[in-house]
Amino acid sequence: MADPFQDVDAAGEEFIAAFADSMDARQSDPKMESIVASYLSKLKFAEGSLTVEVGAGAGAVTRRIAAKAEPEQVMAFEPSSGFVREARERAKQHTNVTFEVADGTALPLDDHSVCNLIMHTVLTHVVDPVPLLQEARRVLKSDGCLVVCDADFSKASLSNSANDPLDACARAFVNEFVTDPHIVAKMRSLMTATDFEVTDFDVQSRTVADNEQMLPWVEETAKRMLERGEIGEELFCGLVAEYKRRAAAGTLYGHQVFATAIAKLS
Ligand SMILES: C[S@@+](CC[C@H](N)C(=O)[O-])C[C@H]1O[C@@H](n2cnc3c(N)ncnc32)[C@H](O)[C@@H]1O
After folding, report:
1. Alpha-carbon distance 28 to 31, whole Å?
2. Which positions fall inside the Methyltransferase type domain (predicted)?
3. Which of 109, 164, 184, 233 has the highest CB neighbour number within 10 Å of its CB?
């Protein structure tokens, strides 16, 4: 089944509402907060500057960017009109940010008009990242800064032991909700090939240990296995119950790797 993040509107309203909440929960995780804080601390938000986020989803990261850039302007672009609607609703307290429907390959921006451009967990969901990087290059000023933060889903795990049945949900998640699980390994060479010079490359681990962080994904992947007839109702309930049991017992150990590349035009 295709990664639903390639066409979120086609995935339907239930998906949009659930994953808008899930991405907000991910951003409130202290580890994700520190990953975002770290790259935002390396950017300049000079007077009159414009910062752009591409693939903004429901605006979980955009709100962090807007708070940091304030009072300077932030424009967030997202191909899903459903996510843009959610994002506008959730960002009402920020007066320096706008959300528009646009694909990262065709931004409604002039050449060399942007100071900072951020893509947070976007390239792992596209078939070809090169046109998005080329478009970032087109709109960035000559002294502009590109930030690409993504998950290395090839290393994602929910496993506590060999043959851990709960890890089936992590593998199903990578198979069904990710387009390129190896994007992080390719990130620096893709940026170099599109005429960026990578100035900073930082890799950080994130541990998933409570219900809020991954439960919706376990429920969704187990539901899909149930709907396809791969497992029965008992195992569906068992996988979800096992995730909750470990979270309550303090033994849940989900592992994800995130990498951030910061680049300037070469
Ligand atoms: C996992 S979500 C991340 C959303 C947001 N950056 C966050 O971290 O909360 C991936 C996002 O990439 C967007 N996306 C997928 N293909 C895209 C493209 N060609 N151009 C721009 N965004 C795209 C999806 O619509 C989705 O909102």
Report:
1. 8
2. 52-148
3. 184
> Could you tell me the distance, in angstroms and rounded to a whole number, from the CA of residue 231 to the centre of ligand 1?
30
- Minimal-distance CA residue to ligand 1 atom 14: 55
Of all residues in the chain, what percent carry a pLDDT higher than 90?
A: 91
Q: Tell the residue nearest (CA) to atom 1 of ligand 1.
A: 121
Please give the single-letter amino acid code of residue 88: R
Distances (CA, A) of 25 to 22, 33, 145, 173: 5, 11, 27, 17
User: Does any ligand 1 atom lie closer than 6 A to the CB of residue 80?
Assistant: yes
pLDDT in tens, 212-238: 778 888 999 999 999 999 999 999 999
Per-domain boundaries in the chain? 4-152+179-208+257-265
**Sequence-distant (≥ 6) Cβ neighbours of residue 155 within 8 angstroms:** 255, 256, 257
